[in-house]
């Protein structure tokens, strides 16, 4: 670039910062004191305009209570690309391979972009002709300056406290001096250095001046002022700048929100130097008089200015001079000019006129530094309300990357605005490290068929293996069969009429198992509508006790239990005896294949080299209410032994089916409230949200689900989603707008809402594992039968055959186990 600096002065000449006066407060050359607040922001994606107006009014109430006249505000939005991914280590071959390939989705430098929000609060001498404080300080005694310093620091502390309280829903924190390995570093200094160099570097706290220690780059401005360069030890970056030239007559909350999704790296800077009420009124009255004297036909404007004056007099409105610039980074001059042109059009879409900073480029660059008031280009007076419309602190929420109850995030998705979104089952405090805490983690996934529900469940289950999590899965249509085998778990397919290999009466006679045997017998005896009387309950208890005491373990079962339940003579019309009611469950009965098997082969012990992941396919029994309820009762009982404090996920696919049974309803009514105490998670999914909402325990499941995931559903009913699942009108519209094949979904955790997408474009082989079905499961079982159950050996062969089957090149033979 044919360039040269406009003034051969060191960068330190333009840096106003002197030193830290406290850990959080910095003094500058002009008797001004500053504190920098980093704000995570608040998602307005699913908020109505009414909600946003309420948020703005709450912030405005805070701003009105600050010391106007002394107060200065600088805001910065730093848009930058990031390469972030949760820390992950996996023992399973498939989980490790998938994580590596999925991570590659985000390896592109431009794959993910975040917006970081900063608010710098300053207290400065009042530039007011009536009060004359600034002038008095120029010739003030040391005592006068000391008094001003003390007063200003207290004013600034009070302002920061009030602002932090007002931003309590925005996750704000004050930057300060921090200790790193025994050395002190300045976080505000690191932010100021970034504004100077475009790079983040540590800034040690020394006994020197910040204006000397902060510069680490040389800005170079074009002879003609069009573009500039930042030259650092790591290289050179070009930049251009736009300035706000004119705004529309009316701005709304979040007026710049759409700008923040632009695909560039940038720094948006705004400043607002507040006026005292007297100065504000004088300025507005002067402007009103000019309008009236010009004979301009603007009665509406004059009337509006009268209202502004009234609001200033009552303290309902503040006024200050405002400026705004946008610095855009580019790799070369041509692409940078295109980026600036595109941004100019994006601002125009919002009714904002921006112009390139050309010969004022240098001034615009230095004006980015908070408290560099004299370098600002084109400051104009705006109201405090308009300031907040242009600085609403809206942002795309990113979830919680670390410090969750199970540690790092389960996985990461890309949000629809290109930002990373760290997903967790658990809902925990954003700013607190809650590792090891037992917080609510229940999750409900709702999605229409074909929208990726099974794939999403599989991805989450696989990624959760970084925690070594145990999993109990109630599956349908063998959707997760191949995945369970790939994770070296065990999968049990229940076939209608075929022996299950279950024999609950051969369990060890512990108090819990004995209680379950009594409960199971009573349940089976009442399946046809009969009630179990008190006397019959005692008979059952006695029969179970005698079975355990008198019958050898290998001979125990319903067929031997019946000998302790005599078949009494009955009068016509009397309720059938327990004996007769249990006959269908005997070995030679209609349902004898369910529980009256020779031995109990349901072994939840984990063989060496395998993992505690247990899948049960219930597809064939879901329509048989007698078998379905009894089967889920047994699975729940056996799996309870695994809830011993370890991390455990209970995944129930198409949960509307098991929830038809009263015992399962009662079980879930308790589990949704107590599972977290056992370090567990309940993850429900369904294609039928109405069935969940109408279920007797549906409201409890919905209320206790800290995480709700809504996949596309073109048949979504407004009443169900809004009344039963608690979505706002805007949130419901987000769900309705999702394309069926978009692989996007809405994640709602408390009041936070994000629209994310699952991009598996770099994981085509894993998709064949996640997209389970009976025919894919048959291929996997055939391959395992041929080469063994080590996924490192059978997965490549499975992928090859599955791809051929998908193309119709190879017939698939269903194999039963």
TrEMBL record:
GO terms for molecular function: ATP binding. The keyword Nucleotide-binding applies. Residues 174-378 form the CagE TrbE VirB component of type IV transporter system central domain. The keyword Transferase does not apply. Residues 435-731 form the TraG P-loop domain. It comes from the Bacteria. It holds the Pfam family P-loop_TraG. Keywords: ATP-binding, Nucleotide-binding, Virulence. InterPro entries: CagE_TrbE_VirB, CagE_TrbE_VirB_cntrl_dom, P-loop_NTPase, P-loop_TraG, T4SS_component. Belongs to the TrbE/VirB4 family. NCBIfam families: VirB4_CagE. This is Type IV secretion system protein virB4.
